[in-house]
Amino acid sequence: MKIKLLPLFLLFSGFLFAQIPCENGFAGSYPCDGYDLQSEIDLGILSAGAGNDSWGWTDPDTNKEYAIMCVSNGTAFIDISDPVNPIYLGKLPTQTDPSTWRDAKVYNNHAFIVSEASNHGMQIFDLTRLRNVNNPPETFTNDAHYDGFGRAHNIVINEENGYAYAVGTSSFSGGPHIVNIQNPTNPVFESGYSSSDYTHDAQVVFYEGPDPDHAGKELFIGSNENEVVILDVTDKNNIQLISNVTFTSTSYSHQGWLTEDHRYFLMGDELDELNFGFNTRTVIFDFTDLDSPFQTFDYTGPTTAIDHNGYVRGDTYYLANYHAGLRAIDISEIDNQIMTEVGYFDSRPGDDNTGFGGAWSVYPYFASGNIVISDVDRGFLLVKDPNFLSTESQSKPTFSITPNPAQDFITIKSQETPINEIRILNTLGQEVILIENNHTMGRTLDISSLNNGMYFVILNGNTTKKIIKK
Questions:
Q1: Residue 182: count of CB within 10 angstroms of its CB
Q2: Contact 72, 50 (CB under 8 A)
Q3: Three-state DSSP class for 174?
Q4: Which letter does DSSP use for residue 305 in this model?
Q5: Which class for 136: exposed (0-12), middle (13-18), buried (19 or more C-beta within 10 A)?
């Protein structure tokens, strides 16, 4: 099943071979600005009727990246460590019936999967099994199952403490149903909260924002149909409502994400474009005072497409915009109420209308910069900004690389922290060099065998530097 790299792209049996750069506004048939198409796998190969949610996992032992693609009849797992030659490893079938709605998140090398299918509960799958798939695609089975609820619309996980929050279940009026997953294959019911009624989607964090009254608390921020609610869930047996906030032209509070400083919450109303005739609208809430949050301004996109799932990484908001595909929006000037679209990849060519096909979700958190688009109609697409340079180096130890540009050798030195690992990726996101150091403060590498061009050097898994091989 693994695809061999070809010099030119070729579409065959639902796979796309080799990268298609975004040139003159198109990557093949896909309208684009600043994002190349790495690869795609259509729904026929995935043996599914529709795509929906997506997430990702990076193997901590191998640094391989894997896409988790939810489809109507199960959950597909795709090895994207060679992003232009993805390997469809197999599928975990749905627990009960097929469903348009399925959602997955990851904690401690396990995937946790829920669905709106009746009596589905929560499937638990050990992702380390993906290391040893010999005959893909395989049909997988659960490693564990939680039946404390039946259907669920979504699942949220706080990876810092190992709690899962299922939302939209038939329990707790659709509010958070909390499960202790610290032992992933032995999930234990913890508690729930019903006083704010139905939650469609949520984010849970340990708060590190500007409000000192709530510093360090574990917060649940729920998109609850006609409002946003903020709950203190630090004590699972004594959950407290901090506040709730409404907004103008309300149709359906669908999903939102905090900026990395926890000052702003970017929320999408799924039905306002349809009901009011807006262009794509994102509502921005100011969370400076969590007891009194407020709608500070709205961002309006360039099309009439409906916004769906959106996620923040650094100064960019990555939005799955249904018919308009992935939109990348610069939020570096959000303090001045300025948000600017800086790129896109339209996974549904033809129109940008207010329909429910196209890009359901995106996953922008891989160190390589590869971004998953899960498309309702097209299936799995992998895209990348060819100029991607990780922002993870901010507030990290200082490293130097000399000379740069370089012809045969580079020397990497650390001023503070020992160098434990060096990965070098090409602009396709492919790993070309992996060095595991033993706590050294410097290392000279032979790069003479590399082709001329730009490369990304990832140090200790959290700092990225750009080099030029000449």
A1: 12
A2: yes
A3: helix
A4: P
A5: middle
Q: Shortest CA distance to 433 belongs to which of 442, 446, 420, 452?
A: 446
The DSSP string of 261-304 is TSSEEEEEETTHHHHH-PSSEEEEEE-SSTTS-EEEEEEE-SS-
- Residue 9 in tokens: 């792209």
Please name the residue that has the structure tokens 């669905």. 115
Tokens standing for residue 18: 């080799």
Phi-psi region of 47 (alpha: psi -120 to 50; beta: other; left: phi over 0): left
Q: By C-alpha distance, which of 352, 361, 287, 374 is closest to 320?
A: 361
CA dist 107 → 42, 310, 352, 358 (Å): 27, 20, 35, 28
Q: Distance from first CA to last CA of the chain, Å, rounded?
A: 35
| DSSP-derived secondary structure letter, 322 | B
CB atoms near residue 241 (< 10 Å): 12
Q: Which tokens sit at 145?
A: 């199952």
Give tens-digit pLDDT for 216-251.
999 999 999 999 999 999 999 999 999 999 999 999
Both tokens of 12, joined, read 């065959």
Please give the model's pTM, rounded to 2 decimal places.
0.83
* Look-up of token digits 């610290």: 182
pLDDT tens by residue, 402-427:
898 889 999 998 877 888 889 898 87
3-state SS record for 239-257: CEEEEEECCCCCCCEEEEE
Phi-psi sector, 324: left (phi>0), alpha (psi -120 to 50), beta: alpha
Residue 63 token pair: 């640094």
Q: What is the pLDDT of residue 15?
A: 60
d(CA 320, CA 305) in angstroms, rounded, equals 10
Pick the closest to residue 372 from 156, 6, 79 (CA basis): 79
CA atoms within 13 A on the CB side of 61: 7
Backbone angles phi, psi at 8, to 5 degrees: -130, 160
